[in-house]
Amino acid sequence: MTFTKTIGAALLASVAMASAATACEVTLRSSDTHPDGYPTVAAVNHMGDLLEERTDGRLCIEVSHSAQLGQEKDTIEQTQFGVIDMNRVSLGPFNNIIEETQIPSLPYIFRSVEHMHKVMDGPVGDQILEAFSDHDLVGLAFFDGGSRSFYNSQKPINSIEDLAGLKFRVMQSDMFVDMVSALGANATPMPYGEVYSSIQTGVIDGAENNWPSYDSSGHFEVAQYYTLDQHLIVPEVLVMAKSSFDKLSAEDQEIVRQAARDSVPVMRELWAAREAESEARVRAAGVEIVTDIDKTPFIEAMVPVYEKYVTSPVLQQMVADIQATE
Ligand code: GTR
Questions:
Q1: Which one of 31, 76, 90 would you pick to mutate in the ligand 1 pocket, going by the greatest count of ligand atoms within 8 A of its CB?
Q2: How far is the CA of 16 from the centre of ligand 1 (A)?
Q3: Where is the protein found, in the record's own terms (predicted)?
Q4: Which of 7, 20, 275, 325 has CA atoms 20 to 30 A from the CA of 209?
Q5: Whether the CB of 95 sits within 6 Å of ligand 1
Q6: Residues 6+ apart with CB under 8 A from 156
């Protein structure tokens, strides 16, 4: 009897599991370069839970984390082709493809993270999300990426002069190459996944990123000098392949958009907690951190970058709108 009951229970459980697995009519595969548990991955998983709930399990999301589907630049192309349904990436690798994404990626464009939230939650954010539609993508939501600062394996950076001659990896964006050159250093664009070994082998001296990425990538192990110059506050974005989006009914499309929007406050909370955790972890690991850096020469050095990239009236208006946002 007990035996039969056990088998019965096991069978029921496997039937339940099978039906749970097959209940999703559509499973959207979403890419992320970060490991499981990272705030961006957790936020897209949360969005997936909302989708399942709101469509009675018809729509699901499966996040392929840890760059399982490739490095960001390649996964962007695959998303444009519809091979990948969704993608959570930084705006940086979009800079060379969609010029509107350059504006919130400009160095020192935001006065603070709060300023960035205000802008990206408002009309400029909507304008950028809209710009994805000319590139076979649907812009769904912006996530936090904190502020990015330089780290390297050679020496502490106490002033802009200390950057001279050092070689830094940047995301694959021409604007970031020019940003580093304008600061007097050398830039090498390279995929995120190659940075650790490139620092270790001396191909580059360092890179630049936020606390959680500096921590989770392990870059702090090979580049122990981190200077909080905070040159970038680049938002991250969640996009969907237009071809995958177009397969959904108008009602489901709206559910997807809303679930993405609803994941944003959750992401922001997870992000703030993770920033504090990561900072504590790398400080405990003995990283040397320079916090009192004079940012004025850094900001002044960015004038030629703005001149080169903020060219059309549309882009100039976006910059003016951002600066006017209180
Ligand atoms: C991280 C960001 C990633 C990726 C990475 C990089 O902060 O979350 O999407 O862009 O930086 O530097 O490539």
A1: 90
A2: 38
A3: Periplasm
A4: 325
A5: no
A6: 162, 225, 227, 288, 290
